Sequence to fold (151 residues):
Amino acid sequence: MFKHLFIFSPTQSWLGEGVIKLNMIAEELGFFTRWRVLPKNEEGRIECIQEIQVKGLSDIVHNQFTLFDFSSGSFSLELENQALGKVNGKGVVNENLIGWELKLDDMGFEGFEFYEKQPDNSYLMQAEYATADQFRTVIHGRIWQQMEQKE
Fold:
């Protein structure tokens, strides 16, 4: 497998920030994110918990990702959250990139996320999601490994 610290290193926490652009409003919204990556379980599945907080809003969005069926350069994944329920997708990985696309036909929901590895082992991320009613969300940001705090 390719050498990525993000997602493929167990028990790591990642922090991030960026901007979200919704096609319904003119301004960009800042956000913060935290990822917790759990060790691969006995079935070979990797669980990731993502929290997203948009600046100025009190609610935190929780996404749970499960990655599985790893093969040379690809994997399957499932996203579960309160708004969408469960969504299945396909992912790709190479030495510089982790990415996936998701689709939920009954809701007319589809989108993708890409995480591009940087020389300092942080990742630049880009995502775009759309619904059948023409709502579009574009996200740009950066994530980095959370350093352990010294006592």
Observations:
- Residues 130 and 136 are 4 Å apart (CA to CA).
- The beta strands are 12-22, 28-37, 46-54, 60-71, 74-81, 85-93, 97-104, 109-117, 123-130, 136-145.
- The longest strand covers residues 60-71.
